[in-house]
Amino acid sequence: MKLLVRLRNLLQFQLEQFMLRGVLSRLLVIACAMVLIAVSAGLLVYNVPHVGAAGDGDPGSAIWWAFLRLTDSGYLGDDEGTLLRTVSTTLTVLGVVLFVGALIATMTQWLDDTIETLEAGYTPIAKNNHILILGWSNRTAGMVKDLVESQARVKRFLDRHGGGRLHIVILAERVTTAMAQELKDQLGRRYNPRRITLRSGTPLRADHLRRVDFEHAAAVILAGREFGGDSAVDEATIKTLMNATSSSDEKLPLLVAEIFDANHLPTARRAYAGEAELIGAGRIVARLLAQNARNRGLSWVYGELLNGSDEQIFVRECPGLVDERLVDVAGCFERAVLLGAAREGALVPVHRHDDDRVRVGDRLAFIARSFEDCVPTSEPETVMTATPVERRERASRSRGHRRVLVLGWNRKLPSLLAEFEAYRRESVTIDVFSLRPIAERETLLARQGVQFAHASVRQLEGDFTSYHDLARLALADYDNIILLASDWLGSAEAADARMVMGYLVLAQQLEQVENPPFTLVETMSADNAALFDAAHVERLISPEVQSSLLTQIALRRELHWVMEELFGAGGAEVVFRDASKLGVTATNDSFDTLRRARAGEDEILLGIMRAPDTAHPRLQLNVVDKHAPLNLVAGDELVVLAVPAASMSVGAVV
Q: Which end of the chain has fewer CB atoms within 10 angstroms, the N or the C?
């Protein structure tokens, strides 16, 4: 008995395994069952009159008779006699179950599985010159929106790669309908499913990279996961770079990748064999936070340049200006502001050295409204700059002492502390207030090589969302308060929810302070920026900054060199100059006049920041009419790009 049971189980298991192979196996089982039933029924009735051909007992005719009743119930009325009617009725019922039910069910399931597979994006694509985004995060839809809206820049990019129309391919862990809906919500009428392709897979596998035709992409964007472990994010990025290198024998496309820990940048450069622009995202955002804390209003400038507003950064070759001094050609552009020359992976600012000249192959960097505005409209003119003595005096000035309170901890904080340490002309004391254990923080700082010889850093333990914990701090004694978004909560929504809670607790504590310190809030979503609204508060939406950097650099890699100079450690710095202290209020000075005056101080005039209570737009970069009077009043400021004195042609004292 046990042997029979085991034999039955064996046959049942083998049949199960055979049917699970696929739709063809299931169809074969159904066909075999139908043949077996037809043969059995035919042999049962083949001696019955009127069954075989011409009425004789032919087994083949009897089997054909049974097969017709099994597949078509219309023959049921032709049978006579109890046996034939019983057998034919049974065959008809079995035919409905097998031929109609099982067959249709099998084909329907196969069709559903096929459509589901197609919708899930498992089939490979064959494209040329597409833009490939590896990974899906809370920033992906925003990056697609930036690419779709940058029509002129995208057209120039595609022209350099052989033409064609913009096609964006996204490789996500698993494609869902929610992703397509998020793209529709972001793009609105601009959404075109024929120009956006979603595919399921991970960039950590070579076959999944081939699924999105990695080798034939014009540019690849690899954004790090915003939320995760301190090192796990960069580890996955570097593994992807190595995987991409080993998976292709052809020329690799330009890859723009995001590295959060600047210490991993050299390793990432070794991991990818093709052209790559590796963005130290954590370092750049940290520098923006540090600069904004020291210069109120900078969030307006960053928002204008990085978030797709009217004024953007462009690079363009100007062969007619070759061999001219950079300081002399700055006034050649009526509709743009010259920042410097992009060459050999770096930006040379206008006032880096007085004798810097435009070289063959240089791409000049501008703030402008369009690429066409970056065309010279006049001849170069000799500009007088600061003398070596003036530069040494400026370099030796101290900016006094600054006290900074940092609330929270994320992976950008080590870079933020290192940035404050780099400001040697400014004495700074920084208190870091976080729930993270102090010993763990110190270990992380040591592993990243962050040391303090100039800045004084004190680690405090507490929860900035707690009234009791925050009340222990003397908030009135600080010049700046920086609230950092938490990247350990798992999502942007959770991080901003905690940030809103902490901000409200802080706002209540500051109600008792007569002159509240300037507060800078890092938020993870533009939808929540309006929640942090107060006269002494500014917001930095770090995911938008990072996404804008990735998309713009993917379309024009030289922009990375410009961004590193403007936003990287030790580069040129955007600062504000009080118009009243410069004596330019209540005058008829134009933008062009003030540009010449700031050039004499080795500064590039970018625009005007109006006082909050004026009728003019608050921030005016690259003023349209550069010869019209600006009519500056008390409270207005000049927005300038100042080149560090240490980089001047003279030996500055730092």
A: N
Domain count, the chain: 3
Report the Cα 119 to chain-centroid distance in Å.
24
Per residue in 534-587, pLDDT (tens digit) is 888 999 888 888 888 899 999 988 888 888 888 766 678 888 999 999 999 888
- Same domain for 99 and 152: no
> If DSSP codes are grouped into helix, strand and coil, which group holds residue 407?
strand
Distance CA 349, CA 359 (A): 14
Distance, in Å, from the CA atom of 496 to the CA atom of 109, rounded to the nearest integer, reads 44
- pLDDT one-digit tens code per residue, 239-277: 999 988 887 777 899 999 998 888 888 999 999 998 999
Is residue 302 one of the residues assigned to a domain? no
Structure tokens, 120: 């899930």
* Backbone dihedral angles phi then psi of residue 362, each to the nearest 5 degrees: -65, 145
Domain-located, residue 143: yes
Identify the pLDDT of residue 55.
45
Alpha carbon 196 to its chain's center: 16
Q: Spell out the SS3 assignment of 588-621.
A: CCEHHHHHHHHHCCCEEEEEEECCCCCCCCCEEE
> Same structural domain for residues 109 and 171?
no
What is the Cα–Cα distance from 329 to 651, expressed in whole angstroms? Answer: 25
Which residue reads 């002494």 in tokens? 536
**In the predicted model, what is the mean pLDDT of residues 373-398?**
74
What's the 3-state SS for 104-161? Answer: HHHHHHHHHHHHHHHHHCCCCCCCCCCEEEECCCCCHHHHHHHHHHCHHHHHHHHHHC
CA distance 43 to 250: 66
543, 567, 587 - which closes a domain = 543
User: Would you tell me how many other CB atoms lie within 10 Å of the CB of residue 327?
Assistant: 25
Three-point CA angle 267, 273, 278, nearest 5°: 50
Predicted confidence band at 651 (pLDDT cuts at 50, 70, 90)? very low
| Token code pair at residue 20 | 């699970």
Distance (Å, rounded) from C-alpha 275 to C-alpha 559?
A: 15
- State in Å, rounded, how far the first CA of the chain is from the last one: 96
Run of H or E including 38: helix 23-45
Beta strand pairing status for 619-621 and 603-609? antiparallel
| Cβ-based neighbours of 396, under 8 Å, separated by 6 or more | 653
Question: 3-state SS of 273-313?
Answer: CCCEEEEEHHHHHHHHHHHHHHCCCHHHHHHHHHCCCCCEE
Q: Which of 466, 465, 424, 459 is nearest to 440 (CA)?
A: 459
Query: pTM of the predicted model, to two decimals?
Result: 0.79
Q: Which two tokens stand for residue 154?
A: 């995208």
In angstroms, the CA 427 to CA 420 distance is 9
Cβ-based burial of 390 (10 A; exposed 0-12, middle 13-18, buried ≥19): middle
The residue behind tokens 């929106």 is 145
Burial class (CB within 10 angstroms; exposed 0-12, middle 13-18, buried 19+) of 142: buried
